[in-house]
Every structure is written in C-alpha cells, then in structure tokens.
Amino acid sequence: MTVLSELRMRPATAARWGWDASTTARLVLAGVVIFTLLVGANLATPLYPLLQARIGMSSLDVTIAFSSYVLALVAVLMVAGHWSDHIGRRAALVLAVMVGLVGGVIFANADTLVSLSMGRALQGVAVGLATGASSAALRELLPQRPDWASRFTLLSSAGGVAAGPAIGGLLSLLPDPTRTPYYVHSAVLLAALIPLWLLKARPAIAPAEGPKPLKVLAPRKPSISKDARGAFWMAAATGFLSFAVFGFCLSLAPGYFATVVHADSRPLIGLLAGVTLGASALSQLLGARGRFVVPVALAVLGVSVVLVGAAAAWSSPWLLVAASITAGAGQGIAFRQVFNEVAGRVEAARHAQVISTVYVITYLGSAVPVIGLGLAVSSLGLQAAVVGFTILCGVAALALAVLSLRSALRA
Questions:
Q1: What is the DSSP string of 193-217?
Q2: What global pTM score does this model have?
C-alpha cells in the first residue's frame, strides 16, 4: 500500500515497489521517529533565555509557549489517538514527521510569542500523532515480548526528551543559536522521512469498509475495560506527576539551575535540564521486578524532588545533580512498571487508543502545574516558587507510593 492509499484507508490501485524491511529495521525506524520528534520538541529548553531576550518574554510567557506544545499534543491524542489503528502505523508516522518539519521551521523563525506558540503547537501535533502509532508499532513487532516493547517505547520517548536540551545547548554554540538547532533538526527529519516513505507497510488493522471509511477516524470516547481500570489510573497518575517534574525541567529549570551552579553556559544548563530525563531513560534498561518496586521507586522520586528544591538554599550543585539522577531513576522505574501493567491488559485492536489516553493525562502534567509555577514565579520569585513546587510534587509522589504499597500488600 502507498501512504496516500493508507490515509484513504483503501487498497492501493496498483502494486508498487517498497522496502520490505526486516523486523529489526522496523523497530529501529519506529523508535528513531518518536525519538527525533521529541528531541526537536525539547531543543528550546536551553534557548529560552535567548528567546526571552530576543522577543521580550517573561517567565509566564515561557510557560505559555511551552504549554502550547503540551496542550496541542493532548488535543491530538484525544481526537486522533486511535487513527493509526485504522490508517496504519507507517502513515501516521509519515504525517507526524511532515507536521514536525513545519512546526520546527515556524519556531525557528518566530519573532512573537504567538508565532513561537504556533510552532510549538505544531510540534505537539507531530508528537501526538506519533505517540500511539510508535507504541503500537513496537508492540506489534514484538508480539511475544510485550515487556520489551513497552521498554523500547519508554526508552525512545524518555531518551528523546532527555537528549533534546543537551543537543539544543550544543547546537546553540553555532552561529544564529536560536535558529540553527532547528535547521539541523529539520535535516534529520527529512533523512528519516525517506526510508519511512519507501517502507512497505504491514497494516495492523484492515482498511475500513463501506462508502464512508473516514467515519472511523471521528473522535471517540475513551473506554477502559474493567480489568484494566486500576492499572490505567495508577499509570495515568504516575505519568501526570512525572511530567509535572519533567515540565519544570524543560521550561523554568534552566534559570533555577543557573543560580545553583553559578554559571550560564547553555551546553551545561541544557545538560543539567536533561539529567533527570536521561536517568529516567537509562532506568528503562533495568530489570527491576517485585511487588514493592513501584512504591519504593515513587518514594525515591518524592524525596529526590524535594532535595532538588533544597539545592539552591544549600548552594550545592552536587546535591542538585545527585537528586536529579535519583528522581529520574525513581520515575523511570515506577512509570515503566505501571505502563507495562496497563499495556498488558489492553486488547491489541485498541492498544493505540488506550495508550494515547494514558498519555493525554500524562502530558497534562507538563501543562497545568507548569503554568501554575509560572504564575507563582511572577509573584513569589523563582527560588521560592521552585521550593513550593518541589514540595507539592514530593508529597504527591509519597501519596502515590502509599497507595501503591497498599495495592501490593493486597496482591
């Protein structure tokens, strides 16, 4: 099938040559696409101080620009999270890459908060289209290894988010630092689009029948089977909290980190912003198991987040780094376990829809609390607002740890 016939959900009118890639190549390509899109969505983290100076933005404006990405992503997950179940995984990923290209170019050339937010929103649309599709594709390519499919999904996602700030900081050393990172990223997306377009697709779901096949793409109300509801809500709550912490790291944290380490090097600040997310990504490689893994990991996350807020008061860069690493490791282990639990209880035909719904709630954590943090910074100052934010996140993590422990004891 061609990409266009997949989008129409109709069989191709004539056979065409295609790259019949191996399972390994398809795994790599699915992971690379979501990884690259998330790198692009987070290149701006160390660039925000430069953008504030160039465009004249406040701390609240930064959180608005950041949240426009998250809100667009959430809207797409709600409206189109199930699309790849019908048009196929390849077609959804092609759409995502093309929208991501447009969003990156708009963001690179933005000279107002509105255009900046528009570019960010298109990046959110791209990531939203790719999230359910890549997760479902990886699961279908590893039908006998659902745990590894979930691990690859989280590793690609967390790895892309973690690498974005570090890569953005390094590329900002090149001429025209607020635009060059996006031009380089656009070239990488174009390179990924070529094999994706040539790939001979293996549609997971048969094309829709009837005179109006596009009706299956209409928004639908999410529904979770009774057996999966408990796992769903634990995954969603853990994800919401995790991305509240990640949203802080990717928006206002660079300014906070600069006060702790007494430096304004963009590569250094980008690296620090990505430490928590990098530790989360690496933790996906660990094989931690057992009834009490989730409550222990959530407790580690809660204590570590509070210590991140205390690092400035104690002027301790080492505490900041250590607490950021343990926070990321605790989050990664906990989220992987609860994500695997809900993914394993969902039937294959509705996998993309349900996982997209988990991510709807998860990504809201990067918008609502972060906008609240931006408002708090405007009235309380950066350090006081960060301390209050980290205490709230720590208490929430410990509360989830208690709930998880009670569930483990009943099992």
A1: HHHHHHB----SSPPPPSS-GGGGG
A2: 0.76
